[in-house]
C-alpha cells in the first residue's frame, strides 16, 4: 500500500497527499483494494496516468480518485490482455455462430463464451428481447473467461477434426457425449486441461465408482 501511495503521489503531486495523507491512515484504501491482484493495481495506475494525460491535453485538471473509484479502475478489460473488447467479441460471435468450427477465432475466450451461450440460440434468437438476453449472458461468460486469462490460465481449444457436415450421426453423437462428459467434469471441479475421458474416470471415482 505504501508503494501505491508513492505512485499516486508522484502522479498527482501535492493534491493526493493533501487529500489522503502520506499513507493509508484510515485503512479505506486497503479495505477496497485488498482483494485485487498486483497486476490489477498496475491496470489502475495505467488508467490514472491516461486520465491525467487526457486532462492535460484538454486543458483541465485531474483529481485523485476515491478508493472505490480506483478499485473500479483496476478491474481488467479484455483489451488489457490483448483480447477483443466485449462489443467486438459479441459481434464476432453473432457473425460466425452459424459455422463456429470453420471460423478462425480472434481468441479462444470468444469461442468459449459463444459456446456457453449456445450456437443454436445465437443463430435463432431473432427477437430484440431474446437477443438482449443472449448478449447479457455472453458478456457475463466472456468476463469470467477474461478473469481466468488475467489469472494466468491458458484457455485451450477443443480441436474438432472435420466439420459437422462431414460427420455421420454416430460420430456426432459420440462427440456430443464427449463434450457432455467434459462439461460434467468441469462442473465437478476437474482441471480445465483434463480431457473428457480423464474427466469421466475422475468423476466416477469421485462418485464412488458408479
UniProtKB/TrEMBL annotation:
It holds the Pfam family Phage_lambda_P. Residues 166-181 have a biased composition (Basic and acidic residues). InterPro entries: P-like. Residues 166-210 are annotated as: Disordered. This is Replication protein P. It comes from Vreelandella lionensis.
Amino acid at each position: 500500500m505504501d508503494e501505491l501511495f508513492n505512485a499516486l503521489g508522484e502522479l498527482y503531486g501535492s493534491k493526493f497527499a493533501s487529500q489522503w495523507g502520506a499513507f493509508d491512515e484510515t485503512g479505506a484504501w486497503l479495505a477496497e483494494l485488498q482483494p485485487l491482484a498486483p497486476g490489477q493495481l498496475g491496470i489502475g495506475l495505467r488508467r490514472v496516468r491516461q486520465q491525467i494525460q487526457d486532462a492535460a491535453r484538454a486543458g483541465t485538471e485531474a483529481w485523485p480518485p476515491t478508493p472505490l473509484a480506483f478499485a473500479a479502475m483496476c478491474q481488467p478489460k479484455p483489451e488489457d490482455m490483448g483480447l477483443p473488447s466485449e462489443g467486438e467479441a459479441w459481434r464476432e460471435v453473432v457473425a460466425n455462430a452459424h459455422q463456429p468450427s470453420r471460423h478462425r477465432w480472434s481468441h479462444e475466450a470468444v469461442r468459449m463464451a459463444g459456446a456457453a451461450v449456445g450456437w443454436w440460440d445465437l443463430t435463432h434468437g431473432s427477437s430484440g428481447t431474446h437477443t438482449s438476453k443472449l448478449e447479457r449472458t455472453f458478456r457475463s461468460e466472456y468476463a469470467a473467461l477474461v478473469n481466468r486469462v488475467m489469472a494466468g490460465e491458458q484457455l485451450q481449444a477443443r480441436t474438432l477434426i472435420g466439420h459437422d457436415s462431414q460427420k455421420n450421426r454416430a460420430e456426432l453423437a459420440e462427440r456430443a457425449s464427449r463434450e457432455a462428459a467434459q462439461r460434467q467434469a468441469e462442473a465437478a471441479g476437474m482441471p480445465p486441461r483434463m480431457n473428457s475421458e480423464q474427466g469421466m474416470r475422475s468423476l466416477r471415482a469421485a462418485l464412488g465408482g458408479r
